[in-house]
Structures are given as structure tokens and as C-alpha cells.
Amino acid sequence: MLSIEKQLLFLLSRTESMESQELIRIYEKRNYSAPYIRNALSRLKKEGYAITPSRSSYRITDAGRSFIQSINLKPRLYDDHWDHMWHLVMLEIPESERKKRDQFRTDITQVGFGLLYNSVYISPWSYDSEVLQLIDKHQLDKRVTIFRGTLPHQPITPEQASRIWQLPQVEQMYREQWQTFTGQFQPAMQKALHSHAEPLELFTLYLHLGEMISGLYLVDPMLPESLLPPQWEGKKILQTLQQHLAELVQAIPSDSFYASFLDKA
């Protein structure tokens, strides 16, 4: 799933249903074309995360709501206690179903699993319900095995974790997003806040920053500190971006149309 699709799903989760034209109007402000947004909505529908109760209207499904809740809870894992139990998923999907296999691999990686061995994925965190939903989504019953346990004789080191979860690539994405934030986004945000910009402009900035954060949610496995490389900056960067997102939330008037999509304290 792309970060823009996750964000569309988030907006749908905050309302009973939304017209595609309303979503297009919001995202055109961010220079997304109407065909691009329609295609993203179509993909959400194809994946079972949204339905169309009426023409041009979209509503989130239970599967979509579960997915968005699971991904949004991932950052809390940075502060969770790890019991040193491992959760593994083993695939037995034939080459004849390669497309289905590749889609499952992409989904399970975004949940937080890393590739331990060929067709064996591992996570320090329990994602049993998410994996079961993916098995159902891709119709892979009896082709996926879930189990848990310890690795007493071959503990995974931070060096191995870096390879399993491709942490150098994750770290690079954090650096790129941080450069974009400090060099482009933050000045635009401060200008809008100081000039008392219109609610739509503030909401557009909220969506922009939210999409940046969503992209990080999808690639960062949020590993326990003992598995991370020294001086890992992902957690700190993520917290800083979230603080600025909260600042935008508070700046959007509570009586505006866009406030309904926000959690305002």
C-alpha cells in the first residue's frame, strides 16, 4: 500500500462515507490529479479496504478499519517491552501463484515482518490478527503457517536485524524525509501558521505531513532498542514530525469542515 492510499483510508475512517469528488477537491490542492486519486480509491476497493455504497461514494470496510488501526499503532512499539519471543510466518505458495505470493510478502513486510530465510518471515512483535486477515484477504488458507518461540542458540544480533529488516534503507528514508521537512515543509508550515491561513490550506499541510509520516509507518518495523543499530534516529525523527502534526491539528478551527477528520484535544 502506498502512503497516499493509507491516508485516503484514514479519511474514510473518520466519516460514514465520502464522495470521490470531495476527496479529489482536497487532494487537487496538493497537486494530485483526479485520475490519480480515482485510481488510488479503486485499489482500496480492489483490496477489500473500501466499498462503494452508491455511485462515486466510498466507505471504509471492517478490513480497512483494522488495517489503519494496526498501522497507526505501530509507533507505540518503540516504547513497548519486548519479551524476547519471536513470531514467525512460513509461506508455502507455489510459483503458479507468484502474484498472490508477492502481494502477501509486500503486505506482511509493511505490517512489520522481516525476511529471515527464504519464505520465512520474523517479527519480535505479535501480529497474529493482522496476518490472519492477510491470509483471508489473499485466500492463502493452508499455505501459511504461524508460530512463535525463542532462538536460544542463535540469537539475532543488531547486525543481523539490520539485514533482515533492511534498516539502512529505512534509515535513508528517514534522512530524506527529514531533509524535505526541514528544507521545504517546515518553512511553509510556519508561514501558514503565522499568517492565519484558511482551514483548507492548513488541512492540506496536515495531509502533506501526514503522508510523510505514513510512509515511514509502512517501512519502519519499530524494532526493540536491543535490535537497533547504535544512534538510531528513526524514533526521534518520527516523534518530532508527530509533534508538528499535532501543532497543525490545533491550528485548524474546531468549527471547520476539516476538523471532523482530526483528533482535537
From TrEMBL:
<dbReference type="InterPro" id="IPR011965">
    <property type="entry name" value="PaaX_trns_reg"/>
</dbReference>
<dbReference type="InterPro" id="IPR048846">
    <property type="entry name" value="PaaX-like_central"/>
</dbReference>
<feature type="domain" description="Transcriptional repressor PaaX-like central Cas2-like">
    <location>
        <begin position="80"/>
        <end position="154"/>
    </location>
</feature>
<feature type="domain" description="Transcriptional repressor PaaX-like C-terminal">
    <location>
        <begin position="175"/>
        <end position="250"/>
    </location>
</feature>
<dbReference type="Pfam" id="PF20803">
    <property type="entry name" value="PaaX_M"/>
</dbReference>
<dbReference type="Pfam" id="PF08223">
    <property type="entry name" value="PaaX_C"/>
</dbReference>
<dbReference type="InterPro" id="IPR036388">
    <property type="entry name" value="WH-like_DNA-bd_sf"/>
</dbReference>
<dbReference type="InterPro" id="IPR013225">
    <property type="entry name" value="PaaX_C"/>
</dbReference>
<dbReference type="InterPro" id="IPR036390">
    <property type="entry name" value="WH_DNA-bd_sf"/>
</dbReference>
<protein>
    <submittedName>
        <fullName>PaaX family transcriptional regulator</fullName>
    </submittedName>
</protein>
<dbReference type="GO" id="GO:0006351">
    <property type="term" value="P:DNA-templated transcription"/>
</dbReference>
